[in-house]
Amino acid sequence: MIVKRGKRYVLKSKESGRTLGVHPSRVAAERQETAINMSKARAAGHKLPPPPDERDETMRKIRSGKAKFLIPLMLLVATAAHAATKTCPSGTLAPTPATTTGPTTDVIVARAIPGLTFQATSPAGTATVAVEASCDGTNWAPLATTMSLATTATSQAVSVQNPACTYRANVTACSGCSVTVAYGCAGP
């Protein structure tokens, strides 16, 4: 029998009156009572089904939760399918330096990082590089700051705090240039 004493639930033997367990909830006390009764029945020779395995229920819940992440993952891959998606912490946005105008071949999908920095370098010629953002993967908008590279400034950088969309670099002007755009991420 289960008796409530203060905030605790005490399981007592009906025959002897001794305490068999003290529990924080009635459900926990009922579980122990069920286990004791099943043990007595087995000892008496009764055939009982095996006790339920709580791990199966936990795994079923975990497996069903994974499907929630599958659709956003597929959408993320589908949006960036037009170019290679780079992951942080660092790298370059094109396999070779850009010698003409146009966007870089690769993009960065920046999610859950505190900061993202782009650095454009051109050891020769002059160039202008704009970092662009797109939240829909189709329409691109330049950030407020552009990087102007010349013989006096062969390298410049632009930082984005709390990036949330997809980013690329676009060489908007190039005269005898050889532009490499590197990126680096802060955090995970």
SSE topology string: EEEHHEEEEEEEEEE
Q: Please state the overall shape, judged from the principal axes of the Cα atoms.
A: rod-shaped
Could you tell me the mean pLDDT? 79
Distance between the termini: 54 Å
Q: Helix/strand/pairing class, anyone?
A: alpha+beta
Low confidence ranges: none
Commentary on this structure:
The structure is a single chain. This protein has 188 residues and is of the alpha+beta class. The chain has two domains: 1-51, 2-Layer Sandwich (Double Stranded RNA Binding Domain), CATH 3.30.160; 85-186, Sandwich (Jelly Rolls), CATH 2.60.120. Helices cover 23% and strands 39% of the residues. The chain has two helices and 13 strands. A hairpin with a 6-residue loop joins β2 (8-12) and β3 (19-23). The chain starts with a strand and ends with a strand. The relative contact order is 0.16.
Note the topology.
Elements: E1 2-5, E2 8-12, E3 19-23, H1 26-43, H2 54-79, E4 85-86, E5 90-92, E6 102-103, E7 107-109, E8 115-121, E9 126-134, E10 141-149, E11 155-161, E12 166-175, E13 180-186
Task: Name some characteristics of this structure.
188 residues; 4-stranded antiparallel β-sheet; Double Stranded RNA Binding Domain; 6-stranded mixed β-sheet; alpha+beta
Short description:
By secondary structure, this protein is of the alpha+beta class. It is built from two helices and 13 strands.
